[in-house]
Amino acid sequence: MYPAPTPAGPTDGAPPQPVRPRRAWALTGALGGLVGLVGIFATATLTAPAEQFRADNADYVAAVADRTGYVWAHQVVTVVAIVCLAVFAAGLRRYLAAQEPADSLVPAVATTGIGLVLVGLLVGGGISTELFFALGAADQYDPDVIAPQLTIVATMAWLWGGIGLTAAAVAVGGFRHGSVSRWFAVFSAVVAGLVAATQLTPVQYIALVPAGIWTVVAGLALAFGQASRSSDPPGRVIV
């Protein structure tokens, strides 16, 4: 009678395969930044034919009454950006939490910054439903009611100042704890400064430009490992 064969243990046979890093959340963030940056600029041409009528709401609304497609597109852009950035925020928090000390505020502050942008997108895109139907029947609505809705569309979704807070948190984490590579920490610090400049002057909506670029670059860098400490050149010391 022969003994039954013993199953191979975990140390027998081929060595375990290395765990592949998760990239989907970071790529989703890059997509969200790109959609927001390009899409919001594209749909901003909604009011282009009416710029000369700013002093008269009736003429202003009449000039854009047939451009409801832009309103719908704006709504789609904001929804896609919201979904992508929400996923990116969760992934970024998990990534930073794994790199930072246990009591670090960096992951929470970075996530809060993106959350502020999500609120602006939600409000800026949410008005699209009311505006779509109002423009579609502009002769039945008070132009003095529609005009402020156009102002909300032209402002709220552009307020990406919260990304400046995110970039600043990432920069602090990189410099103090080495949670990201030095080049990415420097890049984040520069973007945080640019975004802060837009928030301290009456051009807050221009924050979309540096913030959108940071989100695209951050997503791609994090997805392909270029934002990690291992991407620093040999001999560089992270402080």
From TrEMBL:
Key words, A-Z: Membrane, Transmembrane, Transmembrane helix
Top-level lineage group: Bacteria
Transmembrane stretches, start-end: 24-50, 70-92, 104-127, 147-171, 183-200, 206-224
Name of this protein: DUF4386 family protein
